[in-house]
Structures are given as C-alpha cells and as structure tokens.
Amino acid sequence: MNILAIETSCDETAVALVKAEKGRFQVLSDLVSSQVKIHAPFGGVVPNLAAREHLKNLPLLLKKTIRENKLAPKDIDIITVTQGPGLIPALLIGTNSAKALAYAWRVPLVGAHHIAGHIYANFVRENSNNQIPNSKSIKFPVLALIVSGGHTQLILMKKHMDFRIIGETLDDAAGEAFDKVAKILNLGYPGGPIVAAEAEKILTAQKSANPKAQPSDRRRLSLRLPRPMLNSNNLNFSFSGLKTAALYAVKKNPVILKDKKMTTALCAEFQQAVIDVLVAKTLKAAKKYKPKTILLGGGVSANEELRKQLGEAIKNNLKNTLYFMPDTQYSLDNAAMIAVAGYFQYTLAKNKKKFETNWKNLEADAGLAL
Ligand code: KG4
Ligand code: ZN
C-alpha cells in the first residue's frame, strides 16, 4: 500500500511517499521545506507567515514527489494529512490541498494526529535499519515520551491507535523552554539545537580532561537550576519555572551573556535539568504501568544527550524493557511519520466501518484531541 502524506501544522512544509508492507514502512520519498530562516527574526513561528510559505512550497513539493516517483493516481492507495493539533492557518493549507487531491484522484483521505505522527515516527524506515521496530511485532503496552515545541506528554498505548495521556506539561513544552532560553541568551532560533550544541562543548571538554566523565559531572558547575516537579506525586511536567530561573540567573549575573564559557555552562545546566526531569518521570511512569516498550519522539528527541541518558536509565532500571527512538531526521516534523500514523488511522476506520475516509468530512482542528 502506497501512502502520500502531507504535513503543514507548524513551520515545516513536508510531503512523503511511504510504502506499507507487512508491518514495515519504507520511505520512498521524503521532502521537508523548513521555514526556520523566515521565522528566526521573530524568535518564534508567526502563523500567517507560516501559512503563506506553506501555500508557496506545498505545490512545489507535491509536484516534485509526483514527478520523481512517476506517480499516477492509481499508484496511491491513501492520502493522509495532519489534521491537528497545530496552527490553524498552517493546517488549513495542508488539509485543503489534501482534500483537493483526494477529490481529483478519487483516493481515500484520512486525517492524522500530529502527536500520533511523532509516536509512529519510530516505525519509519529509511533503509534496512534493524533497529527500527516492526509495527506488527511491537510489544504492548507501549509508553511513549513525546517532547516537542508544542507538547511534552507521556502516553500509554495498550494497542495501536489507543492513546492514554498519563502525564503532560502544565505550562511550557520542553522544546518551547529550549527556544526561550536560547532567546534569553541571544543565541538564535530554534533554540533546541543551539543550546544542545553549546552544552555539548562542556561534555567534550570534560571528556578530554577525564575520559570517564559522565553527564552528571556537570552538576559540579556552580550554576544550578531547579528540576521542576522532579519529586511531584504525579507524571506531569512544568518547564516555565525552569526558563524563569534561567532568566533570573542572567539578570542577577549579566556577565553570563558576555562570557562565552558562562553561556555554555548555563546551556549545559539547563539541558541537564530538562533531561533529569524527563528521564525521572519516564522511569516513574514505567514503574507504575510496566510497559514492554518505551518510545521516544518529537523535536526534542533529536537531542543526543536525551537519547543517550534515557537509554542508559532504561537499561539500568527497567530490565527487559525495549527502547526505541526515531532517526533524528524523523524526530523533527516530517510527513513520513504522518504517513504511518495515517495508515493506522485508515486501518482503524476500515475495521470500525465508522470513520469516514471521504474528503468531504475532513476539517483541520487546531486543538485536535489524541
Ligand atoms: O516536533 P517539532 O519539530 O515541532 C513541533 O511539533 O513542535 O519540535 C520542534 C522543537 C523546537 O522547540 C526545537 O527547539 C526542539 O524541537 N529541538 C531540540 C533539538 N532539536 C530540535 N531540542 C533540544 N535538542 C535538540 N537537538
Ligand atoms: Zn512536531
């Protein structure tokens, strides 16, 4: 089955062609057009600018996909599009384009949930990478930690497309906090990769001084930020206070902005504080719900330290629990993950004979529930 997928929920225009076969999802084409440069001067995504760029770029990406794969309507079994959540002007470009294509080509259309996409990014297969789980043999219950610019959630799945949010942020998402801290430090946008690169400098320096140095050695830094809700009695997160603590640290000691080493130290401490909380809450959730598999996903899952430290924590504390994460390329917003989520949505629709796959019934929904 060939799936054509479109993603326009935020600031990436993306189109993918994915082949679904025996529980595996092979990427045949994957195009992403990033708008980062356009939004960077504003320090965040401007919804109407995002929509204008999607309108300009989506037809180009679709044409390229069709041309390069010599696609005719008969080659596509379903079209899937991100229905929500996201910025409504941005979502509308993707959903309306998908509806027009589905109508013209007489192909079923299904809406995919963006967060389901981040979870199912774990099944996207670029080549014969054996690390990637097979969606047929994956062991449930699955616990997913999704950390992106808009969401930070712990989600329990007893089967495919069965989502229960067991913990989430009460204020800022982890990625949003990365972006805001980068802004406080005048480092640019998006903040996640920049803060991560700064933090990496310290780890590299520590490693060359002491090859056995662990990330936790960063705790020796004099700069210390809080780990919000680390010991709270639930599985929720809060990152707004952490961002404010970084702001106060800079206000109290403005030299942090000028002294490169201090900027780097603050980035490293901030990143470690986020990771400490994410790892601790994931372990807490795992001890309570005893998942057989843990999946990581969302833009912040491109963070190498998070990937590594969560993996080590799972290995040391949760025997026999499988751990997967997407290729970093598929951690960030893309349409291949929407193809996989759309495939499962379509399967559900067919089995229940309840959901419609008619283009007429699909509406963008900025606050779509999981
Ligand atoms: O999933 P995503 O591409 O878009 C949303 O659905 O929000 O996530 C984007 C977020 C941004 O906040 C960005 O700063 C963050 O992911 N991010 C990272 C890294 N790469 C991207 N955060 C930490 N470390 C990274 N390496
Ligand atoms: Zn996303």
What attributes does this structure have?
single chain; 370 residues; alpha/beta; Nucleotidyltransferase, domain 5; six-stranded mixed β-sheet; five-stranded mixed β-sheet; 12 helices; 11 strands; binds 5'-O-[(R)-(carboxyoxy)(hydroxy)phosphoryl]adenosine; binds zinc ion
Helix content: 40-55%
Shape: globular
This entry's quaternary arrangement is single chain
Label the structural class. Answer: alpha/beta
List the helices and strands and how they pair.
Layout: E1 2-7, E2 12-21, E3 24-34, H1 36-39, H2 47-68, E4 78-84, H3 88-105, E5 109-113, H4 114-120, E6 124-125, E7 142-147, E8 152-157, E9 164-168, H5 174-184, H6 191-209, H7 240-252, H8 255-258, H9 260-289, E10 293-297, H10 304-317, E11 322-324, H11 328-331, H12 336-352
Parallel strand pairs: 1-4, 3-6, 4-5, 7-10, 10-11
Antiparallel strand pairs: 1-2, 2-3, 7-8, 8-9
The protein binds 5'-O-[(R)-(carboxyoxy)(hydroxy)phosphoryl]adenosine and zinc ion (ZN).
Zinc ion binds at residues 114, 118, 148, 298-299, 333.
Overview of this protein structure:
- The chain is an alpha/beta fold and 370 residues long.
- The protein folds into two domains: 157 residues, ATPase, nucleotide binding domain (Nucleotidyltransferase, domain 5, 2-Layer Sandwich); 190 residues, Nucleotidyltransferase, domain 5 (2-Layer Sandwich).
- It has a six-stranded mixed beta sheet with strand order 5-4-1-2-3-6, with helices on both faces. Strands 9-8-7-10-11 form a five-stranded mixed beta sheet, with helices on both faces.
- Helix 5 packs across helix 6, helix 5 runs parallel beside helix 7 and helix 6 packs across helix 9.
- 47% of the residues are buried.
- It binds 5'-O-[(R)-(carboxyoxy)(hydroxy)phosphoryl]adenosine and zinc ion (ZN).
- The site of zinc ion has 6 residues, from helix 4.
